[in-house]
Every structure is written in C-alpha cells, then in structure tokens.
Amino acid sequence: MSFATATENQLGEGTSKLRANCSGIVALSARLESWMTEALSNTPTEIVQSIEQFGSPLNVIATAPLVRNLRQLESVAAERDLPFKVFFARKSNKCLAFVDAAHQAGGGVDVASEQECRQALDRGVPGPDIICTAAIKTKALVELCVANQVTIAIDNRDELQRVREIAAASKATAEIAIRISGFVHDGEKLHSRFGFDVDEVQDLASSTLRSIDRKEVRVIGLHFHLDGYCSKQRVSAIRQCLPLVDHFRSVGLDVRFVDIGGGLPMSYLESEQQWNRFWREHRDALQSKRTELTYRNHGLGFLPVDGEVHGKRNTYPYWQNPVRAQWLQHVLDDSACAEQKADLEPNVPTIADALRDRSLQLRCEPGRSLLDGCGMTLARVEFVKQHHSGDHFVGVAMNRTQCRTGSDDYLVDPVVIRGQENDDQTQIEGYLVGAYCTESELISLRKLRFPNGIAAGDVIAIPNTAGYFMHFLESRSHQFPLAKNVLAENNSPLTWRLDEIDSEHAEK
C-alpha cells in the first residue's frame, strides 16, 4: 500500500475538518487512521465518483494496519522469549486481501466454514497455518481439513468421532486441538455452549484420547475462547489449562500449544470522557431528565422502570483500556500460581514463564482487534426530510445489516463528505435511516447533529468498520446487492480496486 504522506499537523487539521460536518448530540469522536483522513480529505467529486463506480454502500479497506497490529502482539511475546503465533479470525471480514496480508506477515488463519478454509488454501496458506474453529463442522469441511493438515478445534465427542472416521478412511493423520470451557473465575463458572467442560477433560484424555490410533488422530493443542475482554479471565483459563497440559503429556499426548482464541480488546474512540459522558446523559434521557439521545429513547440494553434504570449495556465497549498489546502484556505477566502474587514474591513464575518452561507455543485468534484501523464504509445520501416531531430523517443507500453485529448500535460518529455545493447550510438534527421497509430500519439509533446541513448527494463515511461490522450480518433482503469491497492502494488520486472476494472467480 503506497499512500501519499501528510504531516501530523495536516492530518490533525484534516481530521478536525472531517468531524465538523457531523457528530452525535453527545459526541463520540472516532479514532481515524491517517489513510482514512487522507482518503476522505480528497475532493468530494472523487469520492462521489467512487460511489457511482462501485455502488452504495462501499467498503474501503487497507491492510497495513493489520500488519502493524500483528507486529505489536508479536513484540510482546518476543520480549518474553515466548513461542507465539497469531491466527487472523477470517469470520470477522470476508475480504481476501486480509488473508493475503496475514499470511505474508507470517500469521495464520482461523477459519469457520468450508469456503473460508478452501479460500485460505487457494491463497497459498499452508494447512498447518490454518485452524478450523467452525461451530458446525460438516463432513466436507472435516475431509478438507484432514486432507490438508489443517488443525481442527474439537468441540464435542461427535466431532471427534467424525474426524476419526474420516482420517481412517483417507489413511491420513488428523491434527486436533481440544476445545475447553467451563473455567472457574472468581468462584464462578464461566458459561459457554462450546467445548468440553474443564472438569471432564482429564477423563477424556485418560480414556478416549489415550486410546485413539496416533496414526489417525494426533492431539497437538488445547483451545478455548471466552466471551468478553477480561484479561483476568484469560489468566484463570490458562492457569487451569496448564495442569491439563501436564496430564495430557503424562498419558502420551503431544500437546504443543495453548490457544486463547479471540476477544483481544480495541478502542474505537478518541476520548474516555466522551464515552462516560454519553452513558451518563443517556441514563438521564431514559429518566426524562433531558431530551433523548436515541431514536424514540431506545435504551441500548437499559430499561427505565418507575424512575430507575435497569438492565445492562447491549453494545460493544467502544472505549477500552488497555487494548491489544498492553492487554496481552497483562495476561502474560500475571502470576501462573493462583495462590500467590507476583508483586509480593518476585520468583513466582508468570504465565509467560509457565508456558515457556513447558515448551508451549501460545496462540490467539484476533479478528476485530487485528482489523483495527483497516476499513470504513461509505454510503450515499438519497434524501433528507423533516418528521412532524421536528427531527430529520436522512435516507442513505444501505441497510442496517451492512454496519451491524449482534449488539444494538454502532456508537461511533460518522463523517459527512459534502458531495455538492449547497446554499442551505442550516444546522439540523436527526437520524440516519436505511433501505429496508421496516419502522426499525435505522443505520444508527443515535440522534446526530449536522452543523452545516446535509443533502442528497452527500456521502456518509462510517469509520473503522472492517472488524465484523461490514460482513457479519450482511443480508440481501429486498434483493439488494451486497456491498462491494475495495482495497485502497493510493489516496491521491484515489486508486481503489475491487478485492478479489468480489471477482467472478471468488466463489468456487
């Protein structure tokens, strides 16, 4: 990726100008990568022409931040002399450029379907550099993995039996990792529907796994994935995996790695103060102490009852600290002994020490945090109208599945690029609405302020959507085409080309 460079001052000025056209009623200012600022600071005509060429919405991606993020994680492990490998969670974004970038940077790929696996293999990723963590593993997927030495994370006994049968029939050796769940943290069992319960794994190793034919199936790792982003929970899980590793090895199973899955945190916003203020003001709105911040006072997980607010936030924590590399540092530098504290007894081994002393490789499978800074979604404004409530509806050519995951909203301020000269610069407030024919079809539930007005032909840019927001829920309802995906190769002039996922040969 070869971008025209700009000074920090120029980028800062550009960022301020970009943010001037739109913010939430309570602002949540996005962290903008330099490539985003440069691209969006081009003449509006170029951006509008790109939308006309590729369609609205348009996903714009860049791979350089992925490599930077991967290197940050690797440096943490290298400083502790710990064998380590990052596997890009492909389910977080379907673009093939990210598979190429991860592979070329020395990373692996985590796949969740037969097609994801086949595409990674077709891009030249070696089978041993792929792990399959699919929730449902069909016969065809398992056959593909076994034939190509792709490691399979085993969730249950039926999967294990299927792998054994396919390996025996193909006279190949399947390499597997046992997925574990049900770890205890702070006296409570962590819930998950995936994996073998930690209390059952030792018996599994001593009986079923010990008796399997090593020419058919080799157990080479332990795997887990926890919901949320708590580093202390990861420490608890690793602590409980270490004696299991010792037991597996004692019964002749060659465990080489522990894989902690994904859930490495990232932060979308510039300001913790903005984040905290938004939730204070939102709570006030739910209690009728101020005007609403969301469409029809949507609670975003909270519910007002008799003057009190109940429930919990149903959105990603868009501001977090620590993130990525610092978070991993906290995990690796924690004590490996639950009963002792490293700060009180310096000789107590850390998690990194315990893994290294066992000659174990640490693996992780980040998606969202690896794609931090890697993409943005652009959409054309088609109309602006005023509702009888006084608010305005800004209709954009996209639907909410094209920037949404399972949570209630994307709590990051968009950027508005004026696509034409507009004599009316009147400030308005209102909501971004999308193309599905339902009352709930909002691109963002937050009320937005447009200080310089907004008009048909303008472009809405939603920053930092590469991780999950572009593709995880995208739908072709109403027979709308899926958004095209372009790789930003130059920003001045704009040089964007289709990612190969959109080529006619991508689906095989």
From TrEMBL:
A Pfam cross-reference name: Orn_Arg_deC_N
Keywords: Lyase, Pyridoxal phosphate
Cofactor: pyridoxal 5'-phosphate
EC number: 4.1.1.20
GO biological process entries: lysine biosynthetic process via diaminopimelate
Family matches, as InterPro entries: Ala_racemase/Decarboxylase_C (IPR009006), De-COase2_CS (IPR022657), De-COase2_N (IPR022644), PLP-binding_barrel (IPR029066), Y4yA-like (IPR042152)
GO MF annotation, one: diaminopimelate decarboxylase activity
EC category name: lyase
Record-given protein name: Diaminopimelate decarboxylase
Organism name: Mariniblastus fucicola
